[in-house]
Amino acid sequence: MKVLSRIVSAARRRLGATHFVAPPDAQTIDLDKAAVAANPFPHYDRLRAAGSVQFLPRHGFWIILEHDDARRALGDAETFSNAPYAGVDAVLLAADPPGQAAIRRLLSRRFASSNLGRLEERARDIARAVLRPEIDAVGGYAAPISRAVAAELIGFDAAAVAEISEGSVRALATSEPLAELIAVLDRIAPRASIFAELGDDAGGLVGDAEIRSLVRLLWLAATTTTERVIAHAILRLADDPDLTARIGSNRVLLGPFIEEVMRLHPPEHLLPRLATRSVETAGVTIPANALVQICVAAANRDPAHFDRPHDLLLDRPQKRHLAFGSGIHHCLGAPLSRRVVAASLDILLDAAGDLRLRAPAQTLPFFKTASALSPTELPIAL
Ligand code: HEM
Q1: Span from the CA of 334 to the centroid of ligand 1 (angstroms)
Q2: Atom of ligand 1 at shortest distance to CA of 107?
Q3: Ligand 1 within 6 A of 56 CB?
Q4: What is the pLDDT averaged over residues 241-266?
Q5: What pLDDT digit, counting tens, does each position of 109-120 carry?
Q6: What's the pLDDT tens digit per position in 2-57?
Q7: What is the pLDDT of residue 21?
């Protein structure tokens, strides 16, 4: 397949990018269709084999699928702008160079290693407090741990977290759940202790509206992502007693296990970008002003980069996956979330005599869209 893809890419380069005709899969595929979203990986494989860069007419965006091309695009913020995130946060996540760097420095102090130790302890305390012999590992475990850590980082008290949780549930019943949740977060942002601290630290660099946006970004970036990784990790463990026994008796394996879970199940499959100019990528010309989706879920399973790309291998040689992105917007919370996920699994493994699913795996409900695939309920017994 790989050889075929290289021949096709080479032929396309010879022909010139303008002669590029999207292969049949790209013409018709709908990544939001339930059957595709439930297991997009074979679809990514077929698309990638036909070429790293494709236009998907059903979505109206370009998609980048090969690891090296994805990493290159993530590293070229001037050509591939983060502008599509403007509705989430225009101050850091959607900001482009040079403005983004100063804001990033402002926030980076919150992720100093002394702070991370305290936040990991918070994760451990909550994990111990909420764990039960029978539990929904998403709503009863991964979610409260992720939210408690985010609340501690941002300085939201329990009442604020309860308001956000209620707001999230209400938001799900609306046609614009993200906009609804953002409205709740914006209302209570000034109650976060980080709100005043950032104002003091910023020395006039940002005002109240920008700080509100950063508080909102921190909450949105920290919670669902971490929750999804913990959920996928527990699903893998509950589904594979040998794997659980190996990791349970040798916790050094927890680190490589978590990296593999994030590689195989990145919480966001598509990272959106706007092409600021016409750009040739893998022999294909992406026009100026095009919406581009960098498919990290496909890049993380690129057979040219990872041997046995669909298998979870604890002894895989270190090759960096793209679950945390890359380049100037590389996830600021990556070291924190690694520690929080590890702490959650460590406490779970300490308590687990015989970790198992309490429902057949094929009946579990999943959140399924073009950009994410994650269990929403995970009934387990320890
Ligand atoms: C496993 C958990 C997490 C994953 C997989 C993840 C993934 C990502 C990704 C892919 C990006 C880059 C988006 C892009 O370039 O399009 C990002 C950015 C970011 N993440 Fe995370 N994230 C996680 C947890 C966290 C946590 C716990 C925090 C803490 C608050 C956090 C804070 C941020 C921030 C502030 C940015 C924006 C950085 C910038 O624009 O310069 N993330 N994250």
Answers
A1: 7
A2: 35
A3: no
A4: 97
A5: 889 888 999 999
A6: 444 454 454 444 444 444 455 668 999 999 999 999 999 999 999 999 999 999 99
A7: 52
Q: How far apart are CA 302 and CA 48, in angstroms?
A: 8
CA of 314 to the centre of ligand 1 (A): 24
The CA 283 to ligand 1 mean position distance, Å, reads 30
Taking the CA of residue 154 as reference, the ligand 1 atom at the shortest distance is 30
CATH architecture of 2-156+192-381: Orthogonal Bundle (1.10)
331 CA → ligand 1 middle, Å: 4
Q: Report CA(91)–ligand 1 centroid distance (Å).
A: 14
Q: Please tell me which residue, 14 or 203, carries the higher pLDDT value.
A: 203
Q: pTM of this prediction?
A: 0.92
How is the chain split into domains, by residue range? 2-156+192-381
146 lines ligand 1 (CB under 6 A): no
Q: Which of 64, 116, 331 to mutate to test the pocket of ligand 1 (most atoms within 8 A of CB)?
A: 331
